[in-house]
Amino acid sequence: MIQRWPFFLQFCSLFQRSLSPLAKAISQIVVSRLLSIGLILLVALPLTSAPATATPSLFPLASIHTYQERPGQTTFRSKQSLRDRTDRSWQIILFKRYQAGSLQGLYLRLVGFPGLVSLDSQKPITIATGASAQWQAQPALDPQTQSLPGNAGQYDMAATLADLTGDTPLQIEIPLAGGSVAQLVVPPFAVHEWRELNGQSPEAQSPETQSPT
């Protein structure tokens, strides 16, 4: 490409001499633009000639966090921010807690925006794959949580996660006060993370010292 550059400049000069004054003015603008593009390509060529070495990941970076809340108590947590079908924002928190080495529970906490939603916390949520698989997760509080505000609900996810075998998107229907429902779609990367969290255990972990929820 560098060897052809003088030939290109000579061609532009001969071409301009054969034109009328008006055409020359127009050609000068065109040639100026072409020269600018040529210089940009000449400079950028060494930067783009090397082959790329990065391999894209199938899923976004995992955000599973481990917390050593107190001696003998370990919690694993995955947190996602999603919007329902009416564009309301939700915090989706899946957490799994071990107490003295024994599994205490696996819970899904759903938190809507205060003032916009009020959950019917006594009714189960419905979880479906969009095909034939469907579950109901019953309301359940972990022993460390006495109550939740009206814009939040918590559900037992142990049976649902035990049945999940793939990263299919999940549709969640959340009963709201007044008889309506909120509908969420959990994307494949989040389902993948949930399944990874379900396989976590306290062994060989480097826990953080924060409160998980």
Uncertain residue segments: 34-62
> What structural class do you assign from the helix and strand content?
alpha+beta
Strand order of the largest sheet: 1-2-3-4-7
Give the SSE string: HHEEEEEEEHEEH
Number of strands: 9
User: How would you describe the oligomerization state of the chains in this entry?
Assistant: single chain
Specify the number of helices: 4
Principal-axis shape equals globular
Distance between the ends: 60 Å
Helix content: 25-40%
Q: Report the portion of residues in β strands.
A: 25-35%
Q: How many domains is the backbone divided into?
A: 2
**Biggest beta sheet attributes:** 5 strands, antiparallel
Rounded to an integer in angstroms, the radius of gyration calculated over CA atoms is 30 Å
Average pLDDT across residues?
77
Description:
With 213 residues, this protein is of the alpha+beta class. It is 27% helix and 31% strand. A hairpin with a 2-residue loop joins strand 1 and strand 2 (73-83). It starts with a helix and ends in a 15-residue tail after the last helix. Mean pLDDT is 77; it is low at 34-62.
